[in-house]
Amino acid sequence: MNNLTSRQKEIFEFIKSKISKEGYPPTRMEISNYFGFKSPNAAEDHLKALKKKGFIEILSGTSRGISLNENLLDHIPVIGLVSAGSPMLAEENIEKKIPALPISTHGVDYYLRVKGDSMIDVGIFENDLIAVNKDIKIKKNSIVIARLDNDVTVKTLKELSDNKVVLRAENKNYEDIVIDPNKVSLNFEGTCVGLIRNIS
Amino acid sequence: MNNLTSRQKEIFEFIKSKISKEGYPPTRMEISNYFGFKSPNAAEDHLKALKKKGFIEILSGTSRGISLNENLLDHIPVIGLVSAGSPMLAEENIEKKIPALPISTHGVDYYLRVKGDSMIDVGIFENDLIAVNKDIKIKKNSIVIARLDNDVTVKTLKELSDNKVVLRAENKNYEDIVIDPNKVSLNFEGTCVGLIRNIS
DNA sequence: ATTCATACTGTAATTATATACAGTATTAAA
DNA sequence: TTTAATACTGTATATAATTACAGTATGAAT
Q1: CATH assignment of A75-196, given 2.10.109.10, 3.40.1790.10, 3.40.50.970, 2.170.150.70?
Q2: Distance B53 CA to D5 C1' (A)
Q3: Using one digit for the tens of pLDDT, what is the confidence trace for B134-154?
Q4: Active-site residue among B97, B155, B158, B161?
Q5: Do A105 and B196 make contact, defined as CB atoms within 8 angstroms?
Q6: Which CATH class for the A6-68 domain?
Q7: Is residue B140 flagged as an active site residue?
């Protein structure tokens, strides 16, 4: 969604929402009415721009003949290995994108591929994808995604106060991580709200 | 899909496939062409019948203004508790339907809600949904969905021969289930190819 | 300095589409 | 046995929709 102008983004979003709400794409007129255009040609121009940029296909002579070029639909990034220092959603960390799945009662901002065995006692295994929500308030006893000195880790949050944070690996072989947040750089990236595993 | 005639079923299926392939519903003409009708009114009549029976909505004056009332487009059933004796996919066992998710490299025929703790050592917990493929050949060491005397169970298949089958619960507290398939009714419903967990 | 992309207004024509009306034939229900 | 539902053909028309052409204005790129 990068080379789109903000107006084009709006048009594209409108088309998507029309499809998901009504079940079919809008006409030029419907687009124009929604945005207050006085000419259907304004919509036509936008559609051509979206087509040129590869976001939609237009079937000529076909009413509502707009099809979205999938793969940009409602796709949510899967984060693989996180490069030190880079923001979670940085391009370099995105392994692929998969559709928004109704796996969780909460929204999912991204999926994170699990490394290591530190959470096996709660059934989170290496290579599982955990669904992460960025906005839920970080709470005691939730499984959180934390960034400790640029190292991204998944742990259960057992204590959270101004001068003491305890992260627990759910694996008997690991010890609790006790942190003084004033001394160490600690950020919470999100809360784990779901899990996906591929068994091959 | 019960009170529909077979012809109406065909029309309905055609509309569904058009929507999923093209991204928008067909026109009366497109329906007529596909089925070889010589008049668009044949399609119109069918649409009215489908509307009357509650399968679609028709928006008057709107091109391609057909919306499906079923939202089981590419939806895959989630199987909850399985009633004794009933086939897996029997209506009574279907908890809900969710979209086809690209969680697995294999196809998914249905999701099965896990009961009990017999597989916790491989990270399968109570209430998880396991993705089941019915067609993959049952193999040793896969996690299988077996029906033992009408009881549906998820276990690892450790041995499979003509006169001995061993099903292992992946939980130290349970013993292997050793079966003589000639003496006991045993069917394999499928192989576990993935897992979904909602963490709330 | 000029071309190009963006973001529109305004008009208009062709064609795509919905949909009514008038029929015919078959089958199932009252 | 009459009615209603199903499954169409055939014709017709109003209107929905695409889409081209001719403009205007702005800002960014070459």
Answers
A1: 2.10.109.10
A2: 12
A3: 888 988 999 998 888 878 888
A4: B155
A5: no
A6: mainly alpha
A7: no
> Could you read off the pLDDT of A112-126 as tens digits, one per residue?
888 888 888 999 988
Pick the CATH number of B77-196 from 3.30.230.10, 2.10.109.10, 3.40.30.10, 3.40.50.410: 2.10.109.10
Three state DSSP letters for chain B: CCCCCHHHHHHHHHHHHHHHHHCCCCCHHHHHHHHCCCCHHHHHHHHHHHHHCCCEEECCCCCCCEEECCCCCCEEEEECCCCCCCCCCCHHHEEEEEECCCCCCCCCCEEEECCCCCCHHHCCCCCCEEEEECCCCCCCCCEEEEEECCEEEEEEEEEECCCCEEEECCCCCCCCEEECCCCCCEEEEEEEEEEEEECC
B139 touches chain A (CB under 8 A): no
